[in-house]
Every structure is written in C-alpha cells, then in structure tokens.
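Recap slide: Cell shape-determining protein MreC, sequence and predicted structure.
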Amino acid sequence: MHNLTEFLARYKHWFLFVALEVLSMVLLFRFNDYQGSVWFTSANYVAGLAYEASSKVTSYLTMGEVNEKLTKRNLELEHQVRELSSQLYDKTKDSTFLRGQYRFLSKFRLIQAKVVSNSLDRPDNFITINKGTWDGVRKDMGVACGNGVVGIVYMAGIHYAVVIPVLNSKSNISCSIQGRDYFGYLHWNGGATDMAYLDDVPRHAKFKLGDRIVTSGYSSVFPAGVLVGKIKHVYNSEDGLSYRLAIELSTDFGNLRDVCVIDDASIREQRQVIKAAQDSIKPIEQQNANQGE
C-alpha cells in the first residue's frame, strides 16, 4: 500500500495532465459541431475497417461450412431436376406423369463429409472421409456428391470411414437408364477416371447416346435416381446377348472434396430384413446338412 501511495504521489502531475486532456477532448468534440463531426467520421471509418477485417476473417473460417451446405443443396437440386425431367418425359410420351415420384428429402438425411484421402492410379482405389459411426455413418451406406454417385462405405470407424468408389474393380452398382425400365451393373476396369461401363443391358432396350444413367434403386445401398453419368458409346457384350454401355461419369474424382453419405431409413430397414432372412435360413441349411450326413 505504501508503494502504491508513493507511486501516485510521484506521478500525480502526469495523472492530472492526462485527466485534463481527456476532459478537454470531451468538451471539444461534444460542444463544437465541426470537431464533433470530424470525430464521428473518423471513428466510423476506423470502426468500419475493423468490422471489415473481422468479416473477412469470419468468412474465411466459415468457408468449409458454407461449402458443405452448397454441396448438400447441389445434391438436392440434382434430385429435383431429375424428377422434373422424368415427369416431363412421361408427360410428352404418354400424357401420364411418372408413377412413384422421387421423395429424396423426406426419405433420407445427408451426412456431410470431407475427403481426406483419395487415390486414382490403382485398380482398387479407396477414399477416406472424415465422418464415422459417431456421426451416423455405417457400412454399406451410399456416398454421393453434388455431381452424382461416389461409392459405397466399406468400413466405418468412430471418426473416419473408408469408401469403395466407382473407380474400384470391386465396385458393382445397379443402375438404370433414366426414364426407362432397363438396368444393368456399373463396373470400372481401370484406365480413364471419367469412364465406367454398364453391363448386362438387354438387347431389346431402347436408348440413345447422351441418355442419363441413374441408380436403379434395386440394391440396398442407393435410392433410385442418383445421377451416375451419360451414355457415351454402345458395345456388344462378349456373348452377344446384351449391350455394354460406356458411361461418362458425372463425378470428377480427381477434384473430389465434399461428399454426402446417404442415410435412407427405408434402405436401412431393407438391409435389416435381408439380414434377418439370411440369419433365419442358416439354421435350416445347417439342419438339412446334418440330416444329409
């Protein structure tokens, strides 16, 4: 306490000077219009610079979140465009609207994720995303981006998951020609990262180059209607009994950053029913095998 009193006594003239300066500045700017306007303008300018700098920093820090929202919105708009295109096709063809409309937004939720690892130069490429079981990601969930199909969740950890993309020799996705009932299975045989092949398309199928290829909905992974790509070329299968379509993929795997994991309640229920059926068949098969012995 003695030191504080000594300090105040030693520098009391400076404290008095500062106090009088502050008082004079307040009186000057408060009771003089010109000086007050100068102070107001200068203060607003400095505050504007500070707010602008703060806004830029905030915008930079929230770019990731905005990008994720845009990815989700792009995917939603793609679904809406495909629905309207299908309705327009059926309207002009036979004056009836598409039966069983796409109801993506009411049927599933999209889990936003970022790609943290991605390979393109291997026969069996894999993608790692930064979401796992903690976020609701499970094995065998479909993965898409704003441009279309990406792949299927192969393995899910707590905070990360591994995805088998279309660019993997083991990838096998059921797809169909948009607006038609013909379907086949999508495979990738290596090589170009923007091309894959749709096999087992029946010979009586009617289509043309440029038609869109979408998921068929016949598997327990993807709902029907997720964009895959467009027909680029048509080939005969090796046995000549079906067509093989070269598909130009809509997803740019070389520039893949943000994706969505599709959590579809109806698909999840379908998987549970299939698993329950398989589990119930195993005891019967085992019993039959024991009786045969």
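The helical segments are 2-10, 12-31, 33-61, 63-94, 104-107, 265-292.
Residues 1-29 form one domain.
(End of recap.)
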